[in-house]
Design a protein that fits this description.
Length: about 850
C-alpha cells in the first residue's frame, strides 16, 4: 500500500511537471500574419483561416468595429500555424476595413484587417495572364487574387452601353503587405479606356471607372505597378456598376443637420444627395448609394460644431474675398478649380479669441496640397503655414484686435482642378486628454496590447497628451477584465509618460476584451479624453513611409495562462540623491524546471534619472542588482517605477513585470569639492577635499576618490568621515613618467549608510589633477652634481680639498645693456 502511494505521488508529481511545462510552453503571444480570404460579403456567413504561429490554443477573434459576430474559433490540430474562424456579417455592416486580433490562452496577436464588401467573393483562377484568356466573372463581383512577380491578371465582364464600369482595388488597404497595385479597364481591341495606379481617394490603391461605350465585353487588368509582386501581393478588386465619386463638396457641415452635397468625380457626372450628419463632431464616413448599389468605400466628410460659408467667385484677392457678416468659429468651403487660383474669405473676429485653424484637403481625400494664410483687413499677411497638419495646413491663431480679417488658401504648386476641394475650419481652442501606448520599436506592434498572466503582472508605458492645458491627470480603466486591477500613479503635470501595472489574480478567468482607458484633469473634471492608438500596418520606402494604418480607441487586453516566472524589486528604504547612484535588487520566483535567463529592464525612468539599458538574471539564478543614477538637476519627489522582465521559453517572448513601487529622489545629504591638485612627476601630491554636511547623519561615512590620471596611485583611496568633518586629505604618488598636463577626471563618492542601505553621492566631478614636470636648471648654472657614493670608513687624516673658483656672475639683461653702452662710449672718445 505504501509503495502504491509513493508511485501515485510520483505519477502526480510528473503530471504536475508536465502540466507546468505545457503551461509555460504556451506562455508566449501568438502571431497573426494574415487572414484568408482577405474579404467577405456583408449579410453572409463566412469561414476564415488565420495564418501565423502559436495558434494551437486560439480561442477568440477580437474585432474593434461593430457589425461582425464570431460564431466559432477552432485551432488546426495538425498545424500550429493555422486556425479556423466562422463569422456572420450583418446585412447593414459598414463596408471597408475592420481591425481584428486573435486571442489565445497565452496572449494577443498583432492587429490585422479584414475587408467587408457588398459583392459576392470569388477567387482568382490561374491561368489568367493572357489578355486573350481572361477569367470570366459576373458584374458586381469581388475577386481575391495575387499579383505575383511579372504576373498580369485579366478578368472579363459584360456591360451594356452607357453602363458604369468601376474597378476599385484594395491592396495596401488590406493591411498585410506592401502591394502597389495597378488597374486598367480595356475594350476588346485592347484599347485602354481608364487606368489608375494611386488615387487621392484610396491613397496608394487604384480606382478606375468608365462608361461603357457600347454593349459588349470589357477586360479588367490587375497587376503590381512595376511587375515586382510576389506570393504575398494579395489584392481584392471590386468590379461593378456602383457609383464612385472621389470627393464631396462642401466637404463638411454642422453636426446634427441635413446638408445637400455635390459628390464630384463619378464617371457618370456629379451626384447630388442630402446627408443627415451625426450629432458628434469628427470625421464621418459617407457611402454614396444609388438603387441597391453602394460605393465600394467611403468618402470622408467633416462634421463640426459650427456652420458653413461657401465660396463665391471671383474671390482671388482680399478686395474680392467671399464675405460673411458672421463671426468665427466658421468653416469656409471652396474648390481651387484652375491653375493659379487662390481663394479669399473675409470674416469678423474679436480680440483675444483663440482658434485652431485647419485647411483640410487631403484629410477628405482631395488632391489639393493646401497652403494657408491669414491676413489683416488691409490684406497684409499675418500668419501662414504649409503642411503642419501633415499634408494639410494648420495655424494656432490668437486674434490680435477686434475687426475684419481674411483667410486664403491655394495649392502648394499652384495647381487646380474641379476636385481640388478644401475646407478651412476655425475651431475654438479646447482642452482634451489623449492616452496612448507608445511604439517600443519603429514600424512594430510589439507590446501595444496588455497581456496579464494569471497570478502575475504586466506593465506598459502610458503616454498622456495634454491639448491646451497643463496640470496633473488621473487615469482610470472602468472596463477591466474580471480579476484584474490597474495600478497607476497620478500623472504629474511635469511628465508626459508614466508606468502602469496591471495585475491578475491567480484565479482570474482566461479571456479578453477591448477596453476603454479614460483620462481626466485632476481638478477640472470638464477636461477629459480617452485612448487613441495608431496601428502602423503598411510601410516602406522612402524612409519607412506609413502607407496604411488603423486608428483604434480601445486597448486590447487579455488574461493569459501562467508565466514560468515572476519578478519583484526590493523598494529602496533610502532615497536616490541628486548626483547619486544606487543598485536596486531584483528577485525572481521561477516555476519548477524553468531555468532560462531573464532580461530585466526599467520600464520608465523619471525625469533626471538614468539606468542601465537592461540587466540579465543568469540561468538558474534568482536575483540581480539594477544600477540607476540621478543627475544634479533631477526633480526631488517620490516617483512610481516598474520593471519589465522577458524570457524566451522556446516558444517566443514571455513578458511579465514587477510591482509598481516607489523611488524617492532627494537632495544630497553632503557636498564636496576638490581643490585643484598640483603634483610633480616623481613626487607625492596632496589632494584636499572640502566637505559640507547638509543633513546630519549618524555614524561614519566613507569617502572614495576615483578618476586618477594614469600612473598616479593612492595607497588609501577610501577614508572615513563623520558629520563634523569639513576637510579630508589624500596623498597621491605621481610616477616619474606620469603624463604631464591637466586631467579633469577626478571625482569622489561619499557613501552614507542609513537603515542598513547605502546612499551614494557622486561629487566633485571633473575636478582637476595637474601634473607638472620637474623644473629645469637656470641658464648658465650647471646642474647640481649627482651625490657621490658614501666612502668606506677608513682611519686616516682628512684630505684637504682644493679651493674652488666662485661661480661666474650671472648678469641681468639691464646690466648687459649698461656695460655695452659704456663700452661704446669709450670707443667714441
Amino acid at each position: 500500500m505504501k509503495k502504491t502511494t509513493v508511485n501515485s505521488l510520483l505519477r502526480i508529481s510528473c503530471l504536475l511537471a508536465l502540466v507546468l511545462c505545457g503551461s509555460t510552453a504556451f506562455a508566449a503571444s501568438p502571431q497573426l500574419t494574415i487572414i484568408t480570404p482577405r474579404g467577405v460579403q456583408r449579410g453572409t456567413e463566412a469561414e476564415l483561416t488565420l495564418h501565423g504561429r502559436r495558434l494551437t490554443d486560439a480561442q477568440e477573434l477580437l474585432i474593434y468595429e461593430k457589425g461582425i459576430t464570431v460564431l466559432s474559433v477552432e485551432p488546426d490540430e495538425k498545424d500550429e500555424k493555422k486556425a479556423k474562424v466562422k463569422i456572420k456579417v450583418d446585412a447593414g455592416a459598414r463596408l471597408g476595413s475592420y481591425t481584428v486580433r486573435v486571442r489565445t490562452k497565452s496572449g494577443l496577436s498583432e492587429a490585422r484587417t479584414l475587408s467587408v464588401g457588398q459583392y459576392p467573393v470569388v477567387n482568382e483562377i490561374e491561368p489568367n495572364n493572357e489578355f486573350s484568356a481572361p477569367q470570366q466573372i459576373a458584374m458586381n463581383t469581388s475577386v481575391h487574387g495575387v499579383a505575383d512577380n511579372e504576373d498580369v491578371d485579366h478578368y472579363i465582364v459584360t456591360a451594356k452601353k452607357g453602363e458604369r464600369i468601376t474597378a476599385e482595388v484594395e491592396a495596401m488597404r488590406l493591411g498585410s503587405y506592401n502591394v502597389d497595385a495597378y488597374v486598367a479597364i480595356m475594350d476588346m481591341k485592347r484599347f485602354e479606356l481608364a487606368a489608375s495606379d494611386d488615387s487621392s481617394l484610396a491613397l496608394q490603391d487604384p480606382v478606375a471607372s468608365v462608361i461603357a461605350p457600347e454593349d459588349g465585353t470589357y477586360i479588367i487588368q490587375v497587376r503590381e505597378s512595376s511587375y515586382a509582386g510576389n506570393g504575398n501581393s494579395r489584392y481584392c478588386v471590386h468590379i461593378g456598376n456602383a457609383p464612385r465619386p472621389m470627393v464631396a463638396y462642401p466637404a463638411g457641415g454642422k453636426a446634427g443637420e441635413e446638408i445637400e452635397v455635390r459628390l464630384i468625380g463619378d464617371v457618370s457626372g456629379d451626384i447630388k444627395q442630402k446627408i443627415k450628419l451625426p450629432e458628434k463632431a469628427g470625421d464621418f464616413e459617407y457611402f454614396t448609394v444609388q438603387g441597391d448599389q453602394s460605393s465600394p468605400s467611403a468618402n470622408i466628410f467633416r462634421v463640426s460644431a459650427f456652420g458653413n460659408v461657401l465660396e463665391a467667385e471671383p474671390n482671388n484677392d482680399a478686395t474680392t474675398a467671399t464675405k460673411t457678416d458672421s463671426e468665427v468659429p466658421l468653416a469656409f468651403n471652396g474648390i481651387i478649380e484652375q491653375d493659379g487660383d487662390i481663394d479669399y474669405f473675409r470674416f469678423k473676429a474679436k480680440k483675444g479669441q483663440q482658434f485652431d485653424v485647419r485647411a483640410v484637403a487631403r484629410g477628405v481625400r482631395s488632391p489639393l496640397d493646401p497652403v494657408l494664410t491669414i491676413h489683416n483687413d488691409k490684406g497684409a499677411q499675418i500668419a501662414a503655414n504649409d503642411d503642419s497638419g501633415g499634408p494639410d495646413s494648420y495655424i494656432k491663431w490668437s486674434v490680435p484686435e477686434d475687426g475684419e480679417y481674411c483667410v486664403a488658401v491655394r495649392d502648394h504648386l499652384s495647381k487646380g482642378a474641379r476636385d481640388f476641394v478644401y475646407r478651412i475650419e476655425f475651431t475654438p481652442i479646447s482642452s482634451q486628454v489623449t492616452l496612448a501606448i507608445p511604439s517600443y520599436a519603429r514600424n512594430s506592434q510589439d507590446r501595444n496590447t496588455v497581456v496579464i498572466p494569471r497570478g502575475n503582472r504586466y506593465a506598459t508605458i502610458l503616454r498622456v497628451g495634454r491639448e491646451n492645458f497643463g496640470g496633473d491627470v488621473i487615469v482610470s480603466a472602468p472596463e477591466l477584465p474580471p480579476g484584474v486591477v490597474m495600478n497607476a500613479d497620478m500623472v504629474s503635470g511635469t511628465v508626459t509618460e508614466v508606468p502602469v501595472v496591471f495585475e491578475a489574480a491567480a484565479d482570474a478567468p482566461i479571456g479578453g476584451t477591448l477596453m476603454h482607458l479614460l483620462g481626466a484633469h485632476a481638478t477640472d473634471k470638464s477636461i477629459t479624453g480617452g485612448f487613441q492608438q495608431t496601428i502602423e500596418l503598411i510601410y516602406g520606402q522612402p524612409n519607412n513611409t506609413i502607407f496604411f494604418k488603423s486608428e483604434v480607441n480601445r486597448v486590447a487586453t487579455s488574461v493569459a495562462e501562467e508565466a514560468p516566472f515572476k519578478i519583484d524589486f526590493i523598494e529602496p528604504k533610502v532615497p536616490l540623491v541628486r548626483s547619486g547612484s544606487m543598485n536596486i535588487k531584483v528577485v525572481v520566483k521561477r516555476a519548477e524546471g524553468f531555468e532560462k535567463p531573464i532580461k530585466v529592464r526599467m520600464l520608465w525612468n523619471p525625469p533626471g534619472v538614468g539606468s542601465q539599458n537592461e540587466i540579465t538574471i543568469p540561468q538558474g539564478q534568482t536575483e540581480a542588482m539594477y544600477p540607476i543614477n540621478a543627475s544634479g538637476s533631477a526633480p526631488t519627489r517620490t516617483w512610481k517605477i516598474a520593471m519589465t522582465a522577458v524570457a524566451d521559453e522556446g516558444e517566443g517572448a514571455v513578458w511579465t513585470s514587477s510591482q509598481l513601487g516607489s523611488l524617492i529622489v532627494a537632495e544630497p545629504m553632503v557636498g564636496m569639492t576638490i581643490d585643484m591638485v598640483a603634483g610633480e612627476q616623481g613626487k607625492t601630491a596632496q589632494i584636499l577635499c572640502k566637505i559640507t554636511t547638509v543633513t546630519p547623519f549618524e555614524g561614519k561615512a566613507t569617502v572614495t576618490l576615483y578618476g586618477f590620471p594614469p600612473k598616479v596611485t593612492v595607497a588609501a583611496p577610501t577614508k572615513e568621515i563623520t558629520k563634523d568633518d569639513t576637510t579630508l586629505v589624500f596623498e597621491a604618488d605621481v610616477a616619474a613618467d606620469a603624463p604631464v598636463g591637466q586631467h579633469k577626471t577626478l571625482f569622489g563618492q561619499i557613501v552614507i549608510t542609513k537603515d542598513g542601505e547605502p546612499i551614494a553621492h557622486n561629487l566633485a566631478g571633473g575636478s582637476v589633477f595637474r601634473i607638472d614636470a620637474p623644473p629645469k636648471p637656470k641658464p648658465n648654472q650647471p646642474a647640481a652634481p649627482a651625490p657621490a657614493p658614501a666612502p668606506t670608513p677608513v682611519a686616516q687624516a682628512p684630505e684637504k680639498k682644493p679651493e674652488q673658483a666662485p661661480p661666474p656672475k650671472v648678469l641681468s639683461r639691464l646690466e648687459k645693456l649698461r656695460l655695452e653702452a659704456e663700452e661704446r662710449a669709450k670707443q667714441n672718445q
